[in-house]
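W.,

You were right to be curious about this one. When I first looked at the sequence I had no strong expectations either way, so I just let the prediction run and decided to look at it fresh. Below is the sequence, 79 residues in total, followed by the output.
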Amino acid sequence: MMKSLSNKLYLKKQLYGLHMNEGTTVLEHLNFFNKIINELLVVNIKINKEDKALMLLSLLSQSYDHITTIMLYVRKLSS
């Protein structure tokens, strides 16, 4: 895969524009998310674990909002 600026921008746009559609399973969504993360690694763009976790939580569909709320609340309590 080319490491060009346009390719890096395309991959970042894919990641930041990713949203889980209703009807998509969490596994399908996670697989696509990881695919983009791996493609970013190939072009030397690293995203730390905390940012990946926060991105993934924010990209889940509305039906998972309760999980996101719980995860963020627990994180605040442990800080």
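Here's what jumped out at me. The helical segments are 5-16, 26-42, 49-59, 65-78. And, maybe more interesting for your project: The chain has one domain: 5-78.

Coffee later to discuss?

I.
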